[in-house]
Amino acid sequence: ITGTSQADCAVLVISSQAGEFEAGIAKEGQTREHALLAYTLGVKQMVVAINKMDHPSTNYSQERFNEIMKEAKNFLKAAGYKPKRIPFVPVSGWTGENLTEKSDKLKWYKGETLIKTLDGIDPPKRPTDLALRLPINDVFKISGVGTVPVGRVETGVIKPGMMIYFAPGGHSSECKTVEMHHEILPEAVPGDNIGFNIRNVSVKDIKRGYVASDMNNNPAREVEKITAQIIIMNHPNQICQGYSPVI
């Protein structure tokens, strides 16, 4: 779930094998659940890879591909997606068909390979002009380095030398270094999953879920109430006005 919430695009892999696809789109099937989770967590761009086209029950059949695509569009629309904007790509992870190169066994398919389809995804606009907001995913104590919070930059920019304020809790410290994939960065922008080094703040003072911000530019603060979107994935009864859920 953490990985999905940090993604710009989702690849929904659907098995074309007889029985597996039908189980995945059943009421409590994983395919249906994963699509709803992706949309709920804010991943608005999606590519659907219809896998196992090499399986004997499928045998690279265009008819089976079209059948799955039609059913998938229905539940993706119900989840909130716009099916017309979603590419459907037939592939075989086992034999490598249509992953990086076009396949002679799928001559009826006129679209791009999976990798080229992913290359064609529009990168989202990065809100670098807003105040820094960096939800903390984890905190580490590294010998010789100090306290290293990690997370994904949602808005703004984080740079070494910036005074970082953590909410809730009210702790603050100077950002010494910013690192991504073991590479030191001059700054990190929205979409970057980073770790940053701070001093004089213990790992016990910062927890997963805290938000890091720039102390000198609209720092994050505690609030008394929030407006939230709650999506119910499976409920046995009808929900109507006046219903009082237990959270």
From TrEMBL:
Listed name of the protein: Elongation factor-1 alpha isoform-2
Classification from the root reads: Eukaryota, Sar, Alveolata, Ciliophora, Ciliophora incertae sedis
What is the native source organism of this protein? Answer: Cryptocaryon irritans
Q: What PROSITE patterns does this protein map onto?
A: G_TR_2
- Main localization, broad class: cytoplasm
Q: What range(s) does the Tr-type G domain occupy? A: 1-128
**What keyword terms does UniProt attach to this protein?**
Cytoplasm, Elongation factor, GTP-binding, Nucleotide-binding, Protein biosynthesis
Q: Name one GO cellular component term.
A: cytoplasm
Family listed: Belongs to the TRAFAC class translation factor GTPase superfamily. Classic translation factor GTPase family. EF-Tu/EF-1A subfamily.
